[in-house]
Amino acid sequence: MELALDERDCPLGVAELARRQHIPERFLEQIFGELRRANVIESRRGAHGGYRFAMPTEEISVLDVVEILDGEIRPARCSAGGVCYIADAPLCATSKVWDEAREALENVFGRYSIAALAAAEREERMSHEAAPAGR
Q1: Cβ atoms of residues 73 and 66 within 8 Å
Q2: CA pair distance 20, 31, nearest whole angstrom
C-alpha cells in the first residue's frame, strides 16, 4: 500500500518501504519479486532505484494481488471444481457452499482497486492528522 500512497511516482527502495510498514526487508523483497514477475511493479537499479507500479493502480484490483501472491482463491480444495479431500469421492453437498464463498471473495476483492485503497488510506491519515490531540 505504501508504494501506492507515494504520489511522486518515483521508485521507492525496499529498505524505506519496509521501514515505513514495519516489516522485514526480506519478506518485502519476496512479495515484490512475485509482483515484479507478474508485471504489476517494476524495479530500477542504482542510486535512485527502487520499485514502482508498472501500470496505473486503477487497473490493479485487490483480487489481482491476492491471486498473484496466494494463487487462485479456493476456500476449500473442492471449490471451483477441485478435488475432494476424500480420495475418489464425488463432490459433496458442501462444495456448493465453498463455490459460493469463493465467488463472494472474488467479487469483494475484485471490486477494490489499489488506487481506491490508497485514496481511502490517504483520507484516513489526513483525518487522524487533523484530529485534535487526546481524541
Answers
A1: yes
A2: 16
What is the rounded CA–CA span in Å between residue 66 and residue 126?
27
| Gap between the Cα atoms of 72 and 81, Å rounded | 12
Q: Is the pTM value of this prediction over 0.85?
A: no
C-alpha atoms less than 13 angstroms from C-alpha of 130 in its C-beta half-sphere: 6
CA torsion, points 35, 33, 16, 124, in degrees to nearest 10?
20
DSSP string, 67-135: HHHH-S--SSTTGGG---SSTTPPP-THHHHHHHHHHHHHHHHHH-BHHHHHHHHHHHHHHHHHSPTT-
Pull the grid cell for residue 129: 492528522
Q: Which of 76, 78, 75, 77 is nearest to 91 (CA)?
A: 78
Task: Give the angle 25-65-73 at the CA atoms, nearest 5°.
Answer: 120
* pLDDT tens profile 40-92: 999 988 877 889 999 999 999 999 999 999 988 877 766 666 666 666 555 66
